[in-house]
Amino acid sequence: MNQYNLIVCGGTFDLLHKGHKKFLQDILGLSRKVLVGITSNSYVSNFKDKQIEDFEIRKKAVECFLESIGERERVEIVSINQAHEPLLTSAFNPQAIAVTPRTNPVAMEINIKRKECGLPNLEIIVIEMKRA
Length: 132
What we know:
Elements lengths: L3 E8 L6 H11 L2 E9 L1 H4 L10 H14 L6 E6 L15 E4 L4 H13 L6 E4 L6
Parallel strand pairs: 1-2, 1-4, 2-3, 4-5
């Protein structure tokens, strides 16, 4: 059933909605474990013009959703301060990165930087987002 041991994904997860939830469920269907990077308050302020919920609120919403579907134990949530973090280290060994069509270029950039660091490419899995 689970094609991967570890998939990573990242996002802002502001005002958690059915599109976010479907994205997370799709990823959970592909991997034994998932690492979810949620943008930090300082990082998100660099590229979002509108007011964004505080990191702790966004993180808690993701945690509550995962608990509601019985999947919290399979997911690690971390704060990210840049698009490549923490993917340029060999501290863990993800096999894939899940993205939306809009964030696919970021995944390609991550693979370029991983290659520069002597790390293997991540398989890029593009998941269509459901409209909120």
